[in-house]
């Protein structure tokens, strides 16, 4: 063995020793995170505190030069450690909640969002039964049903969460209402207007029903901040308490809005955002340029918009059609899009620099507002 090889092996042995020490320190850090998680859960505090998170990353970046690495690498390392700590705190919260969980029926539990809610509710300690037509081909198992009619009684369920395609929502709610469940019914449709009549009939029949809208998709981590819009027909605080019994965790945030206002909000938060991605992708297909050429020469802005467009275009087109079609406020969104394009195009074609500046300034003022 040469001197160089011998020295290299010695250095590798030293690195292994340091790695073992780092792993022990990491274990200790996660133990401390668990202790923090216990205190936060007992006090009802959120797991992720942005100010603390940012302070840790700033501290890490300051030491990057001394470690001989870039600030980006240092932030990536400590970002991963922070994500691990957040996950550990969530595990603690789930363990504390497990003993107090109740029985829930999840209608549409084999779908993407249904699967997400299965995992989330179980982490909160709830016992979950599932209804979904996709289960028809599987062997019969306790707590798994292909149809609502297979369930003898809804009485054991303290809550029924409905996660079904938008188009069949009214039919499913009507079927549930006919059975007069005693537990809370939670529907999570992203558009509410077409459900209005079914919800009113269910309430008139004596059901307690809440309209919830998770503002994220099924790829969302359980360990991040989770925003839910509550479309309220009753007192907002009352509805938040009802929902909170089932879905509250240290990182859930419930934002109440009037039921009749929900779809107007979603016309812009979902309809416009989806439409922008679809238009971007569709316009590219008419560019006459190749996707590989565009990718090879891509700017940062192009990459960001392409990423957003891709996330939209790779989703279920029927879902995105329903989000557009079923929203009664879509006409307002489409008119605004047409007017905005016309303003920009007219300013450019008429060589009106001042008008172009004014239009962008107006937009910037709005999107920069907090």
Features:
single chain; 6-phosphogluconate dehydrogenase C-terminal fold; globular; 8 strands; alpha/beta; Rossmann fold; Chorismate Mutase Domain, subunit A; 370 residues
Q: Tell me, what is the CATH class of the largest domain?
A: Alpha Beta
Report strand %: 5-15%
Instruction: Please bin the fraction of helical residues.
Output: 55-70%
Structural class: alpha/beta
Overall domain count: 3
Number of strands: 8
Distance between the termini: 65 Å
How does the overall form come out from the CA principal axes?
globular
**Looking at CATH, which topology of the largest domain would you report?**
Rossmann fold
- Describe the main β-sheet briefly: 8 strands, mixed
Question: Can you walk through the features of this model?
Answer:
The structure is a single chain. With 370 residues, the chain is of the alpha/beta class. The chain has 3 domains: 3-96, Chorismate Mutase Domain, subunit A (Up-down Bundle), CATH 1.20.59.10; 100-261, Rossmann fold, CATH 3.40.50; 264-368, 6-phosphogluconate dehydrogenase C-terminal fold, CATH 1.10.3660. Helices cover 60% and strands 11% of the residues. The chain has 14 helices and 8 strands. The chain has helices at 3-43, 50-62, 64-67, 71-98, 112-123, 169-178, 196-204, 236-247, 259-285, 291-296, 300-313, 317-325, 330-349, 353-368; strands spanning 103-107, 127-131, 144-145, 159-162, 184-187, 209-214, 226-232, 252-258. It has an 8-stranded mixed β-sheet, sandwiched between helices. Strand 5, helix 7 and strand 6 (209-214) form a beta-alpha-beta unit. The longest helix is centred in the first third of the chain and has 41 residues, at 3-43. It starts with a helix and ends with a helix.
